[in-house]
Design brief:
The chain is mainly alpha-helical. It has helices at residues 8-18, 24-37, 51-62, 69-81, 90-100, 105-114, 120-131, 155-159, 175-190, 208-213, 237-248, and strands spanning 194-196, 201-203, 221-222. It is built from eleven helices and three strands, in the order H-H-H-H-H-H-H-H-H-E-E-H-E-H. Strands 2-1-3 form a three-stranded antiparallel beta sheet. A hairpin with a 4-residue loop joins strand 1 (194-196) and strand 2 (201-203). The protein is globular.
């Protein structure tokens, strides 16, 4: 579950509320050392730096229990941690975890309202980070899978703009920007990044990812649709969204 954390402090928060008392900060430090010793790279803003390993660990967390209770608990703990207003870039971290729970309204409002007064690079950085939230498939408000309860997953319709006519953006806001950001966030969450490992290719959004690729380790590389194992980095859905929003809002 510590793969959901972004640094040592947030990892310690998760360890305190989610793990046994004897793990604590010392366990977090030991895990940091182990990741480094095993050759896993570090990355700013992520406790587990390697994106492939992080995706697999998050996927396993997501499937820990049928109702995803632990998944929700982890992200809610991080929402609380980053909601106190004292954390650097706390807003985008909090919105990242809100989106991981399928709640896009706060992220849409934040990106919409900060767009006019934030420099382009910073705004796009926030968009990419928030939209990279690990949201594998749709749930109802209680966290249950839509598929098993007869519900309807409308994310594809939202991403394609088919629900725009039914939306009522708040008064005195840029309605076009509001709807466009809403579509972009939904689109990125509906299109899981595809990964390539030395032996086979699998989508991170499926249960088979963990069982198929858990032994790949640091050799695993992202794939851009080229030759298997080419190691060329993909343009993630969030990055494609960043390109799109700059084109269509200028």
């Amino acid at each position: 579950m510590l793969a959901a954390a972004h640094d040592r402090d947030s990892a310690c928060v998760l360890a305190e509320v989610q793990l046994s008392d004897d793990f604590g900060a010392s366990g977090v430090l030991a895990l940091e050392e182990r990741l480094a010793e095993e050759g896993w790279p570090s990355a700013a803003g992520q406790f587990v730096g390697d994106p492939f390993l992080r995706a697999l660990l998050l996927l396993r967390l997501h499937h820990d229990d049928p109702d995803h209770a632990r998944w929700q608990s982890v992200h809610r703990a991080l929402i609380d941690h980053y909601g106190d207003g004292d954390q650097p870039d706390g807003a985008r971290y909090r919105l990242h975890h809100e989106l991981a729970l399928g709640k896009a309204d706060f992220a849409v409002a934040h990106l919409r309202d900060t767009f006019p007064r934030t420099d382009t690079a910073s705004w796009l950085s926030s968009l990419v980070f928030i939209a990279s939230a690990p949201y594998y498939h749709a749930h109802d408000p209680d966290g249950r899978d839509f598929g098993g309860h007869g519900g309807h997953d409308d994310r594809a319709a939202v991403a394609l703009g088919r629900t725009d006519a039914a939306q009522q953006p708040p008064d005195s806001v840029d309605a076009v920007l509001h709807l466009r950001v809403r579509r972009l966030l939904t689109r990125s969450g509906s299109s899981p990044i595809r990964w390539c490992c030395p032996t086979r290719r699998c989508p991170t959004g499926s249960v088979s990812s963990w069982s198929s690729c858990r032994t790949c380790g640091p050799r695993a590389t992202r794939c851009c649709g080229g030759p298997r194992g080419s190691g060329r980095p993909t343009r993630s859905p969030a990055t494609r969204c960043a390109s799109l929003v700059t084109t269509t809002t200028t």
